[in-house]
Amino acid sequence: MTAKPERPEIVGGTETENQVNFDPAAAAATPPPDPFNPEMLRLPPDFESMAGVNKVLNNIPVRRPNDQEWFDVCPDPAYRGTYAAIKLKAANEYYLVAGHLANVLAEEVISVTIYTVMTKGGVLLLWPVKLPSATDRRKDKWISSAHAAATKAMERRCRIKANMGAGSYDLFISKSTMQGTEPVWPTEPFIDLLRIAFAEDGRFVSDLNHPVFAELRDGG
Description:
21% helix; six-stranded mixed sheet
């Protein structure tokens, strides 16, 4: 004799009372959640670390922060240094010069301190600031105010603006101390930053056959 299947136990009332009443009209009147809203679109703060993503540095501008950029300067001494450079004024471009060529090209070479800079917008820069000449008795306020700004920016976020009347840069210091806006400095060694900024862009001068010399020599 085949046993009859047991009926499920009804808890809290009769079977009829526990059935769900489905109302198609009510379901149609309730709009589905909108997937296109700020909460659904926002990435978690640790997204890159969770996803194992590392930003690859393949372009580092070499320039002074402009007058609309708030910036920080890396306080680690390992991320700045003094080097020989050539500046093409017409193109506003810097060329890094190998040390052994500095005396050979003394008429074109300037000494610069290169600072590692991060703008508030997250742009990594290398900022060359000329060093005053040992034979120049006149103190260059452009040079001294630029170095002073770079030093201050190691402590607080700054902005600079050229003051043509004073012949120097005006310095503005941020009063904001909002957490979460601190610069994220690169983990690559400074020599790698120099390589990316100069060598990989053809602006490292290691011999006298570099094209920059043809441009400086030829007047035609």
